[in-house]
Amino acid sequence: MSAKIAGTRIAGVVSARDSRHGLWFLPLLVGLIGGVALAATAADFATTQNLLNLAAQAAPLLLVSIGQMLVVLVRGLDLSVGSVISLSTAILSIDAPATVTIPAVFVMALAVGLVNGVAVTRFHVHPIIATLSVTGIAQGITMLVRPVAGGTIPPIVTVLVNGEFLGIYMPLIWVVVAILAGWKLIHGSRFGLHLFAIGGGDTADTFGIASRRNILLAYVACSTFAALAGMFLAGRIASGDPNIGTQYAVDSITAVALGGTQLAGGIGSLQGTVIGTLLLSMLANGMNLLNVSSFVQTAIKGLILLAVIAIQPRKTIGL
Amino acid sequence: MTAVPLVSMTSISKAFGSSLALRDVSFELLPGTVHALMGENGAGKSTLMKILAGVVRPDAGTILRNGVPVQMNSPREALDAGVSTVFQELSLLPNLTIAENMFLGREPLTPSGRIDNAAMARATRETLKQLDLDLDPGRLVGGLTIAERQFVEIARGITANADVVILDEPTAALNAADVEILNRHIRALKSQGKAIVYISHRMEEIFRLCDVVSVLKDGRNVATVPVASVSPQELIAMMVGRDIAELFPPRGDGAKSAVALSLDGIRLTADSPPVRLDVHQGEIVALAGLEGQGQRELIRSIIGQYQPVAGTVEVKGRRIALPIAPASGVRRMQALGVGFVPEDRKDEGLFLDLSVAHNIAIGLNSRHSALSIARRYRDIIQDAIKSMAIKVSRPSAPVGSLSGGNQQKALLGRYLALGSDILLVEEPTRGVDIGAKAEMYKLLRDFANRGGAVLVLSRETIELIGLCDRLYVVHGRSIVAEMPAAGASEHAILEAALQR
Amino acid sequence: MSALRHPVLRAATRIPPSYVVFIVLLGALWVLKPAMMNPNILGTFARQVVPLGIVVLGQLLVISSRSIDLSAGGVILLVNYLISSGLLGGIDPLAVIGICLLIGLAVGSVNGFLVGKRRASAVIVTLAVSIVLIGLVEYLANGKPPGDVPAFFRNLYNARPAGVPAPLIFWVGLAIAMSLVLSRSVFGRFVASIGSNPVSAHFSGVPVERTVVAAHIIAGFMSALAGLVQTASIAVGSVRFGPELVMNSIAATILGGVIFGRGAGVWGPFVGVLCFALLFVVMTSLGIQEPGKLVVQGCIILLAAVFYGVRTKVN
C-alpha cells in the first residue's frame, strides 16, 4: 500500500504546481470577489466597525483552524476542539481566582491533547474515534462544570480581548499574533517541516524524525490553540457557555480544507488557512447583514464543505 | 591492511514472526573498501543493512563501531554514528524540496531559530554539482524523474558526513552514463578512507567496482572473499547453493500454437514508441530488462491499472481498446479468463487476516452478482490446497499465518481456481524461499503445459531466463529486443537493453 | 504487551468487548437494583434503543467497508420533521413511510457517490450532509412548534404481539436479515474483502467502488428506518436530537468488535446496542445525569478502541 500511497502523493504534489502549499490562491480569489460583492450589496459591510467585528468573529476560528491544520498535516483530524472551547469557557467561569482558572484551562488542553495523541500514536486508534470519544468526555465534564450559560469571567481575560491596546483594537492583535505564531510553527520551524515530512510519506522515520512524538505534539498544540480560542470567546461573551464550541470542529475543518490543505496530509499552507477562515467568517458576517437565517447559513456551510471535499480527489476510498 | 574495522557486526540474528531472516551473521567493513553484498531476494541482505542503519533491531548479536560496542536504536542514532544509507525503495518525501530532503532531520538553523533555507540551498547545489547534476534545490522531489530522485537520494547519503555508506541497489533506475558517474563517486569515497556497502544484482558492476564480496543465503553469511578471487559463476553458485538449472522445470516443446494474448500499438507515454507483443497458448513469456523501464506499466495497462496513451489488447481474438477504466479493468479481464497476480502479495494480493478459503474463493465469488448467494466452493478449495501442496492446517486458517511460499501459492491458487487461461504475473517468487520458488516455477509451467499462456515480469533476470520460453527486453518504455530464453544470458539481455 | 502473547488472553481478545461489557452491566444491575431485572422493564428499555440499533446495522456495514456514516442524525431529523410537521398530512401513512425511505436512499446515494466514486473523505462528506440536512430542517421548522405524530405510528410502536414490543421484533428481524446478507451473500464477501484489504479486493475482481456505494445506500436506508421508529416513539415531533445517536452508533459498533477494516459480524454490535440500553438503566437508576452519561460513553469508546489498537499491534 505504501508504494501506492507514495505514488498518489507524487501526483497530488505535481498537480499542485510544484508546491506543497496547496491551492490557496483559488479561495483568495473567491474571497476577494465575495468581499467586493458584499461591499456592493450590503451597505454596512465595508464600514470600519463591521470590519472590526469581522476580525473579532474570525479570531477564535482562526486560532482553532491553525491548530486543526497542524493535525491535518500529519493525516489526522481533531473533532474535540469544539468541546475544548466549551470546557475552557466553563472552567474560566468558575468562581475561583484567575491564577487558578487560567492555568487550569491550559492543563486541561494539555491533558486532552495528550489523550488524543497517545491514543493515535501509541494505540493506533483512528484519529476520528479517539477525538470523538474525547469530545464526549470533555463535553460531559463541561456540562458538569457549567450546566447552563452564565458565571463570570476573570477581568484579566475580558480586558485582554476587548477594548484597545496602544490604540489598536484587541481582537486585531489576537489575529495578528495568531498568524505570527502559526507561521512560526508551520513554515518557520523544524517542527513544521517535520509535520509536512510525516504527512508526505511513511518514510519520515528513516530520516531520523520521531514521527510519533511530533504527531503527539501536533495534537497537544491543537488543543492548546482551541483553549486559546475558548479564552477569547469567554472574554467576548463575559460568561461560560457549555455549547459555544459546538460548531467549531466542523468550521475549522471547513476553513482548513477551504484553504487548500489536503486532508490526506503533507500539503497545505498557513496563508491558505487564514484565507479559508476569513472567507468563512466573511460569509457568516455577510449573510447576517443580509438577514439570512442562521439555519440556512449552517446548510450553506455544509454545502461549501461538500464542494471543497468533492474537488479534492484521493486514491483511497473511505475515511 | 590491519586497520580497525569501521564496523564489525558479530553473530547477528533476527526473526520476523516465525521466519528467520538472519542467523548468526557476522560482517565486517574495513576503511577504504567497497564491499559488495550479494544474495537472492529474501536472503537477508536488506535486513542486515536495516539493522546497521538502525531501522530494524537485531534479536541477538553485537555491533562494534571503530571497535566500540554501539546500539543502533533508530535511524537517527545510526546517522549520528556516521552510518548513512541509501535505501532501495525510494524514501524521499515527494512534498518536500530537494534541499529539504537532503537536510531533513538535521536542518541548519539561523541565529534567530529559523531553518536556514539559503544555507541548505547552497550546500545542496554544491553537492549536486559534484554529481554532475544541475537541479534547482528548491524543486519538489515529487516532480523529479526516478533517476533524478535516485541521485538525490545518493547525494543525501554521501553528504551526511558518514564514513560508512550503504548503497542498496543504487543503479536499478540508472542508465549506463549515470552508472559511470556514480562509480566515479564511489571510488572517490573509497579514496577518502570510507567504507561502502554495495548491494547489487549486476555482476558486471560488482567486478568492476568492489573489493570484497559477502554472499548471504537463507539468512546466513556463506562466504566473504576478495572479488578478485572468484568468478561470476562461482558467485552465483554460492548464492543459489545448487546448480540453477535444477530449479527450473523443462521448457515447452516450442511448437507454435494459437495466440492467446497480444498487445498492439501500446504507447505508454505520449513520446514513447508503440509496443507490440504476442503470447501463445502453452507459452511463458517474460518482460525482461532493467528495473523500472516500463515492464510494470505495460502489464498493468492490460488491467486498467495504468493508463497508456494508446493501444489495443487482443484476448483470444477479442480486441479491446486501451486505456481501460481503472475501476472495472480487473473484472473485465477476469471475465475474459485473464488473471492478474500482483507483485506485492501482502498489500495488493491477499487478505492476510481472512481464511485461505476466502482468499481462494473470492475470485470465484466476484464473478457473481453481489445479490446472489455466496457459494463455499469447498471442493475447489480442497482441490487447490491439495494440488498446489499448500501447507495449511485447515482451509479456515488465516492466510497470514502461512509461510511466504505458501501464501504465494494461495494467491496463484485464486486465479487458477477461476479457470483463467491467461495469467499476468508480477514477481512470481518475491520473498519466498528457494524450495517454494522451484514449486512456483513448476506450477506455472504445468499451467502452460495445460494450454495456458503466461506473461511474467521479475527483477531477477536469472529467474526469467530459466522459467520462460521467450523474452522481450523492455527499455525506455519500449520493446528493444526479442529472444528465445534458451541460451539467453543476463549479459545478452543487458546488452540488448543498453544498445540504444 | 507481552502478556497478550499468552494464548488464553489472545483468545479472550477475539471476543467482541460488547459481550463482556454486557455481562458486567447485567451483573451490576443485578447487584444494585435487583428489582429492575424484570423482562417487562428491560423490554421497555430495549425498545428505547431500537432506533440506535437500526442505525448500528447500517453503521457496521459502512465501517466494515472502511468508511463511516455520520449523517444518520440529519436523516432522522428530516424524517421526524416530515411526519410531525403535518407537511405530509392527508397522505396514506404507508406512502409517508415510502417517501421517508426514499429520502434515506437518496441521502445514502449522495454519500455513496461522493465517498465511493469521488473518493472524498467519508467523515467530511457525511458530516457535511448531516449539517445540510439539519440546517434545512431547522429552517423549515423555524418558529413553528412541531406537531403531533399521527396515531398510526404510535399504535405500531406500542403494539406488543405475544407480549414482545413490536419495535424489538422489527429490530431483531432486520439484524437477522443483515447477518444473513453478510454471511451468505456475495455482497457480504465483498464487504469482508474490502474491509481486510481494499487493494487486494480490487485485484481479486471485487467491484470496490460499487460495494462502498451500496453500503452507504443501505446505511442511509437504515437511518430512515431508524427515523421512522424514533418518530413513532414520541408523541410530538422534536427539532433537537441526533448527534449523540450517531456517536453512540459508532460506539456500539466498535464495542461490538467491528472496527475499520475488521468486520466481525452483526451480533457483536447488536449486543453493543443492548449494552447501551443496560447502561441507561444502570445510570438512570444510579441517578447519573446526562453529563455523566456522556463521560462514561466517551470512556467506553476510547477504551474499546485502545483495546483493539493493542490487539492490532499484537497481530
Give a brief rundown of this model.
The complex is a heterotrimer of chains A (319), B (500) and C (315). Chain A is mainly alpha-helical.
Structure characterization notes:
The complex is a heterotrimer of chains A (319), B (500) and C (315). In chain A, 70% of the residues lie in helices and 1% in strands. Chain A has helices spanning 2-15, 25-41, 48-73, 81-92, 98-122, 127-145, 155-161, 170-187, 190-200, 211-237, 248-258, 270-289, 294-310, and strands at residues 164-165, 168-169. Mean pLDDT of chain A is 86; it is low at 1-17. Chain B is α/β, with parallel strands linked by helices. Chain B folds into two domains: 7-241, P-loop containing nucleotide triphosphate hydrolases (Rossmann fold, 3-Layer(aba) Sandwich), CATH 3.40.50; 246-498, P-loop containing nucleotide triphosphate hydrolases (Rossmann fold, 3-Layer(aba) Sandwich), CATH 3.40.50.300. Chain C has helices at 7-12, 17-32, 39-48, 50-64, 72-84, 93-117, 122-140, 151-158, 166-184, 186-196, 198-203, 208-233, 243-255, 267-285, 290-314. Chain C has one domain: ABC transporter involved in vitamin B12 uptake, BtuC (Orthogonal Bundle). With 315 residues, chain C is mainly alpha-helical. Chain C contains 15 helices and no strands. Chain B binds chain C through residues 327-328, 330-331, 334, 340, 342, 347-354, 358, 361-363, 365-374, 414, and chain C through 184-190, 192-193, 196-197, 199-211, 214, 262, 315. Chain A: Keywords: Cell membrane, Membrane, Transmembrane, Transmembrane helix. Chain A: This is Ribose transport system permease protein.
